[in-house]
């Protein structure tokens, strides 16, 4: 197809727009605020392609507004914001951006793990509140990582990259995944696959690195939290609704688990008010892929998917 009409529904790094400009007529929303639905729908009316962000909901209303749409290129690895089944039923190809954000997200997970186990958020808050303090032998003691067990739920690229980092900190790895990872990767990471119950009951740190789906909705609920050790730490850099946030607040308040570090929230961007006052909760605003290089690579990959689709070679990273 020559000169497809491409709608970019949110602000993306310029190199992505430049790639799109090579093949089509691009209209991009460039405001920091989300695109109002009436403007979006007006643009979608004649769109052949939509480049979307994880904050867009690609549902029936979106697709109804876009009768000519052929491809939705999500600038995210997660695509739970897209009704993939409905897209497929309407002949609309969906793509995502796996791979390019693996390191950035694993770095963030490792950073959160260190923050929460060494109480760095609390330390920051203490200094910034100008509370008088002096060095103390027993002041703000955390726990080390050497010899501790990290239980990774979801052993795809990001889970494996986190395992690699955690190994460098001396942690032992167990993981829970639908299928076993390749034996050479298991061996290199000295990682052992186990069932969810064992992982929850025995891990010092539980990290969520699985996709969000109906299957993983509230995977970490009151029951799962009660199965964890009382001093265990939970880290979530995947998707908020994998955790029942209400149950999490209860578990943290009642000492059923030790601490949590969250990059994502059940009702993002809202954060459960019960978390805000808890010193054993580290909270950051969905920064997993937030580096200049990574966001540029994500935008460029999404754009290349559109170019590949219309150029005939096919998108590099389709969702199947
Ligand atoms: C970020 O959360 C992503 O899915 O890319």
Describe the protein:
The chain is of the alpha/beta class. It has two domains: 5-100 and 292-311, Rossmann fold (3-Layer(aba) Sandwich), CATH 3.40.50; 102-283, NAD(P)-binding Rossmann-like Domain (Rossmann fold), CATH 3.40.50.720. Helices cover 37% and strands 15% of the residues. It is built from 13 helices and twelve strands. It has helices at residues 14-21, 37-44, 60-64, 84-89, 102-117, 120-128, 157-168, 183-189, 196-202, 222-227, 245-253, 273-276, 292-311, and strands spanning 5-8, 25-28, 49-52, 71-74, 93-95, 149-153, 172-176, 191-193, 205-208, 233-236, 259-262, 281-283. The strands form two sheets. It has a seven-stranded parallel beta sheet, sandwiched between helices. A five-stranded parallel beta sheet has the order 2-1-3-4-5. Strand 10, helix 11 and strand 11 form a beta-alpha-beta unit. Helix 1 packs parallel to helix 13 (292-311) and helix 5 (102-117) packs across helix 7 (157-168). The longest helix is centred in the C-terminal third of the chain and has 20 residues, at 292-311. The protein is globular. The mean pLDDT is 97. The structure holds glyoxylic acid.
Strand content: 5-15%
Low-confidence sequence ranges = none
Assigned CATH architecture of the largest domain: 3-Layer(aba) Sandwich
The description of the largest β-sheet is: 7 strands, parallel
Q: Tell me the domain tally.
A: 2
**Structural class determined from secondary elements:** alpha/beta
Bound molecules: glyoxylic acid
Order of helices and strands: EHEHEHEHEHHEHEHEHEHEHEHEH
Q: Can you tell me the CATH class of the largest domain?
A: Alpha Beta
* CATH homologous superfamily identity of the largest domain: NAD(P)-binding Rossmann-like Domain
Euclidean distance between termini CA atoms? 23 Å
Mean pLDDT: 97
CATH topology of the largest domain: Rossmann fold
Number of strands: 12
Count of separate DSSP helical elements? 13
Radius of gyration from CA coordinates: 21 Å
